[in-house]
Each structure stands twice: as C-alpha cells, then as structure tokens.
C-alpha cells in the first residue's frame, strides 16, 4: 500500500516527466547534431569555393572553365557547353535496312519511346553551343546562346572564361532577355575579347531604351553587327545613324549592319541616310522587312549620288582645310621655305653673272659695278653648295636645293612636302625623275586625309552651292519587303545611272565604285514596273555573284 500510496503522491515528482524532458533534450541534441554535421563537412566544398571564383585560373577550355566557375559561384544547375549541331544529310533507307525491320518487343519500344522523350526534353535545356576551328576544345571560334535568359552573374562568368579563348571571332545571342543594364555589362565583356572578336549578333532582344548604338562606339572593334527583330523604331534608328557618323566623328570599323525585321519608318531611314553621308567604312546594309516608304527611300538614294552640303558641313569643311594647311606649314617651317626661295634666286643670279663673265672676260668694269651685297650672296651660295656636296643625299629638301639624284633619294623618304609644287618655284627646272618621286607621296597623303575626313573629298560648286560626290563605299543595300512605290524607285534609278557613269569614268584608277547589289523586291509596285526592270538590267552586270555564275555556266558549256 505504501508503494501504491507513494506512487500517486510521488507522481508529480516522479522522474517520468524528467526522463521525457531529458529524452526530449536528447532528441533535440540529436537533431542539432544531425543538422550541424553536414555544416561541418560542406564548408570546404560547398561554401568556401564559391567565395573565391576569382582565384581560378582559366585553362582555355570553355567547357571546363565555365563549369568550374559556375560551381564556385554557387550554381548547382547551369547550362552545358556542347558542340553546335550540324544539319544532317537527308536519310534514305536502303533495301537491306527495310528487310531487317521486324516487330519489336513492347518493352524495347517502351524504352525507345522513353529515350526519345528524354532527348526531346534535353533539346529544350539551356546550352551554350560552340563551333570549333579544328575539332580542338581550345579553338572555340563562335558561341551561340539561344532561348534562355543570360543574367548578369552569367555575364560575369563569361568575362572570366571568354578572354582566354584566343580564336573567338563571333558571339550570337538570340532571345536571351537582355536589358539595358546587362547590355552595358556585355559591352564591357566585348572589350575584353576585342583582340579577336569581330562579329556580334543580338537578335530578339528588344530594349526599352534602344541603346544598341553603344555597340558601335568609337572604340569598338566590331566589324559585323546584326540587330534583327529587336523592335527598333525611328528613335533607335536615330541613335544608330549618329553612331555611324556625325559632323565630328565617324565609325571606322563596322563593315556590315543588319537591321532587318524591325519597325524603322521614313524618319528612321532618314537618320540612317544622314549617318551614311560621312561614313566610309560600311559596305553592307540591310533594312529589309521594315516600314520604309518613298520619303525614306529617296533619302537613302540621295546620299549615294552627289548631294548638297549643308551650311554647317560647309563651315566644318573650311575649318578642316585651314587646319590641314596649318599642319602642313608646321611640317615645313616658313623660314626654311623662304630660305630655299632665297637661295634659288641667288643661284639664278649667280648663273647669270658667270655667263656674262664667260662672254666678256676682259670687261673689268662690269665686275667692279657689281654691288657688295651680291658678292656676299655669292659667297653664301657657294658655301651652301659646298655643304650640299658634303652632306649628299642625307640632307632634307627644306635645307637646300638638292641635285637630281638627291631628289630621287629624298623622294623615297618621309620628308616630302606635298604643297611645295615644283612648277610654282621660279628659277628651278625639275626633271621627270623628281616629279615621279614627289607625286606618289603627295597622292598618298591626300588619300589618307580623304579616308579620315570625308569632308575633304573633291567637291563640285554649282550655283553657289557645294556638292559632295556621295557615298560610293556602300556595296550592298537590301530594302526587301518595305513600302516603297514607283516614286522611290525613280530615286534609286537615278542613283544607279549616276554610279554607272562614275564607274566607267573611274575604270582605270582604283577606288570605290558604288552599289554592286541592290534588292528592292516585294515592295508596293508591280514586278513589271519599267523603273524596276531598268534597275535590274543595269545592276545585273555589276552583281559579282551573278557574273561568276554566268562564267561558270559558260565554262560548263565550253570546257
């Protein structure tokens, strides 16, 4: 009984709750231990490594470097680097294969369907497709990223693993969800790869601020840029036109620009035409599948033939001419040029005096009548000629009048001054050798300034207005599927006719000759339109591809 009485009385003090509490404590400690055990194991593998992705030294193999940097940055699931699939030839089943076709085991067909389903899902997984140069993992030539969002962290990883790729030439991004902020990061990445990267394609990435013109900055090395399907409107075209050229700057690296499948109208086409006025590097331009009508088409056609300079352009041209003159005068100091003309006059006088002395040697009165200043000039001129004989061909033309052989040697150097034309200097007869040595260098200097400053091209004055010869550098223009009518066709017909006359007149000399390929099909005019038929007829002999095809066909018929 005592035990029975003590049991209920001692129940509050019984150790059962204590044991439960202690057991509860034990279980809590076990849970904490279970939670802390992986924490003690994972830090060196899962936490410390992602903190130091910058310490990783890239090996130049994109597949290894990208995976390692993603792991160190904390990514558990990231895109894989795979080879870009090539289109397979059409499969033609042979008779032997058709004979072996037998009803398959249902289990085998089920496994095949499962594999095919998995392969379909694998196709939609994010990947980084690469194209190799010579089946070498270190020779990545092009990168293709399509259909998955490229975040700023991924671009940071690219900025680490892409610069070591010494043969990377092109980056293609299609529908990767770029923003104006990530575009700035992407441009910084392009600067890191600028030694080899020449082609960039951003397609299906509409930006709210339409800041694609940043890819065409003056320090850009991109030669081929594709901006298709980006919803670029007239405002974006204005920024792109200003990136092509302005009155004080011009892009000199971009060779091809693809603006197809956008929303560019007449106003935007006018801005692109303004960019072509002073741009002399762009060879290939596509404005296909836009909203350009006759007004924009006439603007584009106008800059491809002689056009009138605006007042601002005329003022800038005069400023450039003055600046060019001061630079050339600084290369050849005025004092030395005056010294040259002085010595030339002294020599001519000296030659005249010697001739008179030979005619009448005994006439001493003429020798006495010669002034003292002239005698001093004679002494100075003789001293100059002696110095020339001692110095030889190493003397520059600005220090004295060299001999014929010396002039030819000096013409090969870098000291030739183009504005000192021999015909304008009196008292000196220059032989054909000197002309041949001086003219090529002066032409080269002029050509270099023409390339740098298109406003310094030869101009034509008509009725008090200044006309430039127009852009003859653009070779390819695509205006397929716009809204151009016969009115716009007349402008392009006049342009093609002028460029044909220009190319015939310039057939002997080298240089740009104008459009070689012009596409105006699928616009708002009939294919039998007389202006369109005439343009096709005139452009047919200029198209190098069609000329090559005709030559190949002729060789096939007459081997």
TrEMBL record:
Region listing for Disordered, in residue ranges: 1-53, 85-105, 320-422
InterPro entries on file: Leu-rich_rpt, LRR-containing_protein_71, LRR_dom_sf
Coiled-coil boundaries: none
Highest taxon above the source species: Eukaryota
Listed Basic and acidic residues bias regions: 28-38, 320-348, 380-391
Compositional bias of kind Low complexity: 1-18
SMART domains in alphabetical order: LRR_RI
Pfam family, one: LRR_6
Protein name: Leucine rich repeat containing 71
Organism (species): Saimiri boliviensis boliviensis
